[in-house]
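Example 9 (inverse folding). The structure is encoded as follows.
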């Protein structure tokens, strides 16, 4: 006996039909996810599966931060549906930053934090990034230098400035996240920043700031007088 399907719902209650008639903004999180998932399982409709995922991860941000393996571990999801979800969430993150990369300068720590927060605040490992700027403080590119516990052995000046030299970057902004949610820097964070700042001065590529992303909070070493 087959399980419930969305087609069994009245037309006005089906997510796709509701989106076409009322617009995407009128749909709930679970309805939007059901459209991405497309199909359910033998005993769950796509809408039921979407609700199950939201309940399992407790919130949409937690779900967006889940890995492929974590999603696949949920009954009824499988690799294909997990990949569809990951792709949808990644597009959302990129959309939040697309306009900034095209025309808006990164002229303050608040703007840097706003740019990075969607990408970094839910990660469960530290990611160290460099933002490459032109002479007008517009973003040329963003490079991931290391993933894991932040220390000098993982973040070497050679790796930090290699891409900067190749792209003729006028300046850099350093950034990383604290999975604990507390953005205050460790002594290792401060030491590494000073080391990279000295290297940048020698190369003529100044380090403008080091922004640490926490949970809805950030720490700017420039604002705090540490750089």
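The amino acid assigned to each position is listed next.
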């Amino acid at each position: 006996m087959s399980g419930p399907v969305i087609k069994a719902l009245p037309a006005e209650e089906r997510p796709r039909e509701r989106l076409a008639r009322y617009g995407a903004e009128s749909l709930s999180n679970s309805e939007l996810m059901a459209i991405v998932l497309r199909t359910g399982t033998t005993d769950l409709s796509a809408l039921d599966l979407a609700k199950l995922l939201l309940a399992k991860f407790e919130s949409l941000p937690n779900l967006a931060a889940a890995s492929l393996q974590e999603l696949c571990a949920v009954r009824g999801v499988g690799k294909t549906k997990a990949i569809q979800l990951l792709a949808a969430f990644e597009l959302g993150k990129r959309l939040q930053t697309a306009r900034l990369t095209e025309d808006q300068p990164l002229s303050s720590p608040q703007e840097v934090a706003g740019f990075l927060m969607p990408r970094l605040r839910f990660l469960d490992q530290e990611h160290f990034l460099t933002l490459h700027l032109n002479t007008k403080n517009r973003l040329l590119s963003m490079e991931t230098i290391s993933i894991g516990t932040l220390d000098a052995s993982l973040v070497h000046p050679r790796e930090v400035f290699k891409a900067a030299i190749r792209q003729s970057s006028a300046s850099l902004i350093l950034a990383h996240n604290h999975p604990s949610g507390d953005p205050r820097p460790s002594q290792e964070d401060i030491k590494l920043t000073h080391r990279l700042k000295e290297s940048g001065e020698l190369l003529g590529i100044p380090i403008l700031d080091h922004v640490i992303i926490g949970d809805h909070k950030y720490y700017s070493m420039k604002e705090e007088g540490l750089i």
